[in-house]
Predict the 3D structure of the following.
Amino acid sequence: MDFNLFMNDVVDAARQDIREAGYEELKTPEEVDQALSRQGTTLVMINSVCGCAGGVARPAAANAIHYDKRPDNLVTVFAGQDREATERAREHFEGYPPSSPSFAFLNDGKIVTMLERHDIEGFSAMDVIGKLQNIFDDHCKEV
């Protein structure tokens, strides 16, 4: 099996998982700037192909949003794949080092908090869902 073909399949599956969960995929710096300047609350899932992304972060991203409170906007960038979009997104996360997978929470285009890789790796999807929903409780309106 060709490694590049295998990795393309892995990346495609990871992209599909998060899109099917309802997240808007941002692939260019321009798309990032437009999405992260929206009014209201925005959850950014920084996707990756590592095990903690597939086993914890993407399932948490998909399930945390089925809650009484949730962000107005759900978007994602793919670290290691859409490099320019990811770099632009990280420019919006002032005070936080690059981390993937991770979640950034913004309000009116300003970073509020992040769940970084160390908040995800070694935890269960249910743990991360709880962490995300605590952020939603503190910053989102009831839907």
About this structure: Residues 3-20 form the longest helix (18 residues). Residues 9 and 38 are 32 Å apart (CA to CA). The mean pLDDT is 95.
